[in-house]
Amino acid sequence: MAKGRRKIFSDFFRRDLWETDTASLNGYKSFLVKALRLFNVALRDFSEGQLNLRAMGLVYNNPSFNCSPAGDQLLGS
Fold first, then answer.
1. What is the pTM of this model?
2. If pLDDT is split at 50, 70 and 90, which confidence band does 31 have?
3. From its phi and psi, is residue 76 left (phi > 0), alpha (psi between -120 and 50) or beta?
4. What's the pLDDT tens digit per position in 42-69?
5. Distance CA 73, CA 77 (A)
6. With the C-alpha atoms ordered 69, 71, 76, 77, is the resulting torsion angle positive or negative?
7. Residue that wins the pLDDT comparison between 46 and 72
8. What is the distance between the alpha carbons of residues 61 and 27, in angstroms, rounded to a whole number?
9. Buried b (16+ CB within 10 A) or exposed e, 6-38
């Protein structure tokens, strides 16, 4: 019985959540689906170790956080 519920839950987060058309939902339901999608992606990336990698990539590629001499020239410092 528990395996059946787990499969339904897993299928929802892997497939059904992403196939839901948010434009056809009212404001509250649309927000809830989008929040669940965000939570799902963050949890998946965190569990796979990708969240830190993506955060480091944002800092590395963003000139306002760059501490290199090239970044200083770009910012006019």
1. 0.56
2. very high
3. left
4. 888 777 777 777 777 777 666 665 555 5
5. 6
6. negative
7. 46
8. 35
9. eeeeeeeeeeeeeebeeeeeeeeeeeebeeeee
- Cα–Cα–Cα angle for 27, 31, 37, rounded to 5 degrees: 150
3-state DSSP assignment of residue 66: coil
One-letter amino acid identity for 73?
Answer: Q
Task: Give the per-residue pLDDT at 71.
Answer: 52
36 vs 39: CA distance, rounded Å: 5
Q: 48 by DSSP, 3-state: which?
A: coil
Find, among 50, 51, 77, the residue nearest to 64 by Cα: 77
Which residue type, as a one-letter code, is found at position 37? R
